[in-house]
Request: fold
Amino acid sequence: MTVVLRRLALALVVAALVVLSGLSLNRVYNGQLLVTLVAGAAAGSTLISALLRRLPAAVVAPLSVFALAGYALYGIAVSAEAAGVAGDVRTLATDAARNALPRLLTALIPAEPQPDTVLAPVVLAWLAGYAGTELAVRAGRPAVALLPPTLLYIGALVLVGPNAEVALWQPLLYAVLCALGLVVGSASTGATGVRGLGPRQRTLLRVRTASSLAVGLAAILALVAALSPLVAGSVGQRPGDPRRYVQPPSLDVIDLNPLIRISGWAAFPEQELFHVEILEGAAPAPTPDANQPAAGGAPSDPAGHEAGVYDRRLRLAVLPDWDGVTWHMDADYRNAGRVLPTVPPPPGFDPDRPNPIPPLTVVERITIAELRGRLLPAVALPTRVEGIRVAYDQSTGTLLSTAPITPGMQYTVTSVSTSVDTALAMAADVPDGEEVARYLEVGPIVPTDLSQFAQKVTQGENSPYLRALRLQTFMQEHYILANDAPSGHAYPNLSFFLLADRELGGQRGTSEQFATAFATLGRLIGLPTRVVVGFYVPAGGGTVTAGHAVAWPEVLFSEIGWVPFDPLPPPNTPSRPVEPEFLPTAPPSTEPPESITPDEVTASADASASGGPTDEAAAGPDATSIAGVVGVGVVGAFLVALIVIVALRLAQTRRRLTAGDPAERVVGAWHEVMDGLVLSGHPPPAHLSPAELADYAGLVAAGSPGGRAPRRPRPAAPDLSVLAETVNAVAFGGRTVGDPDDATADAARARAVAFRRALYSRRSWWRKILWWVDPRPLRRRRPRDPVR
Reply:
């Protein structure tokens, strides 16, 4: 097999390694579109470099860049069509180029292939294939040629992190392909590939090669022995996830505490928030009065859990954490595609438990009117969203628009609504353990009167479900739903709402107080609870107004999951004051808590969220984030500077050797020789004449000006005396003595190129890299400067 065929075979190995990197990354993607696009990038970049190997590298590089641009646009168009992303290719390409890496790192797993999640892998795969093929086919460096796809594979592993199952066959296959590439490539760089060597030189080269291999093998074995314990100890550890270092889409200030928005909506109940069109699924229960929405269940079941009754309320936010002052969201929104992953089962849930009530698929088209913020309403457990780009919190199943929602925005959401079998709930217990501890947290200081009140209300009920049902019934019978009640749900607010005399304004509140009071009292009696904010939907769909906004509590039961409760009193039903035996001996307060006006709702949302888990979204990036951004910017600027230097150097060389008349090209060739001496670390003294410079260059090419002989065979350097005579005549003879012709200029160019290659071959591997990024030739002289 010839050297060319071996190098082409090495290029095929590079392409296979790039495809394998795409397979590894695809473990966190949905479908196989990403693998197809990465395979196309690997094939395209490899073929271009292999087929154009006889052309100069300065010609192949821009051709490959143009091909990459065209293929990237193709990948953007294909992924946009597959993901249903609207927009023209130019707009999608601009958006993807700006947000490719941030959205890739914040995308929900499994990520859906769409323009902003496929652009970066496709571009990096193309660059890895191009770089590896150039090093394999043009430079004949098998070990270095495997470096670009290896870096790509490592990047894919880091990006996947702990988000996919282990696939042992992939790293094993990668190691086999690397070994094959080294075997194929080394055959074209051995002693038989060096021409002009005698038997003794070939023997010495073989001995030296074998010695180098032995030393390298010994070093590898020593490294393996040193690192084996460390690697073995890390086998059972989960890899780090780079997504935890990237801030996902943040909430608007108005969304930080959705509970406090209830009072603002209650003050303007006729405000149109959005319109709901039910495309599939049964209609919800009718709502007699927008100001006092009916409970979600049938009249025969106060809890709303009669078999076959589905919870059709639209969820806006889920608040699981309570610190005695406010309820927090603690949502981790990640960019998602149209298909949404399922919500993981809550602690204690039994997925194998038979449910006699089948789930109901609900499809609704929602058109935004005057709803503000970014949180999007949807029926619980959404599975598909179309029409807009969303972020998704997989722990709660809530949606967030990636951009602030505006009037007229429309989206279609498919959800799975479930119902609770009351017979199973009656016998269900509540889970415990570390996973449930957050749903039982009640803050550092618990008012004694509230704890005693919760015990008195549920006294005599042993079943957790009956305790929750008793608490719900008590609140429905003794408290008044009032739109003008003051906002707030800290312990002082709840004490006033639950225990203060009605004549002083107590025992009346919005659904904010009903839901948070139920959830807090439930935790005080051992029930894991959380609070949900959402909306009732009119029968058959229609316009949802601010009066339909509602908050409700949910209780976590073993084997069943989260069960919603509705402590709101039924409409048009009178309530009675709380009996004295439930009240403390001394009233908790004689003055109602300060109310919050509708104009202060937005400002209060920002203030009440201080100290909560969502502060990071409002406070902006911390010092670590700023340092990371600055570091990335510095590294990016450094890489751009290196690319610019290489491009300018190539353009300078091309201009010197090919532009202008023959005399200018001869002078340009001489300048290339002088720059080669500078880059080799032996800049020529300024006092030497061209003939003396030619002799000096010969000494440098032979070993060094001190006469040190080379340690291994190298390409011979041409004699520069003829070029020095021509340059001397052109530069100092006024171009009247021996004007050069095209043949003379071509001969000068050939000698200059051969001389620079000879100097380049004598450099170490790291000095060869510095050779191409050294900016000194750019400022050393211009083509019309003096020759020296």
About this structure: The chain has 24 helices and 18 strands. The longest strand covers residues 272-280. The chain has three domains: 3-189, 253-619, 636-780. The first helix runs from residue 3 to 25.
